[in-house]
Amino acid sequence: MTLKDHFNEDLKTALKSGDGNRAQVLRFLLAQLHNREIEKHGTGKGSELTDEETIQVLQKEAKKRREAIDLFRKGGRDDLVKKEERELEVLDNYLPKPFTREEVGKIVEELMSTGLRDFNALMKETMKRVAGRSDGRTVGELIREKIQ
Fold first, then answer.
1. What's the rounded Cα separation, in Å, for the pair 123 and 114?
2. How far, in Å, CA of 108 to CA of 89, rounded?
3. Spatial distance between the Cα atoms of 98 and 20, rounded to a whole number of angstroms
4. What is the mean pLDDT of the chain?
């Protein structure tokens, strides 16, 4: 069962249980996945998304919610902050568990022990290994700390 199939099943469950917020978020997510499939089909690479591509869409949507929460807090819109937080909570249930700073630090140290010392090379290799389970800002900060 692909992640998209899992989302469809969860949408059915949410609709049956009357969980309107969850159903709304899952509908929006499925629409975004459909749009991504259309984009992919246009490039000639097939139309089915892999689970990895699905997770990328999920992460993109979660990032949008986090940014919106920050902006709404600055603007004093607590009602919209709560709405975005509820949506983010639903999305976070489907995201893989993120790496801790310590886990990312160990990956950076491991790469440095292989002889990598250049920031860009370390960043590239670390981001390949964390594959969306840590953000670039955290990885960059850790690499700068380890290099100095």
1. 14
2. 30
3. 27
4. 88
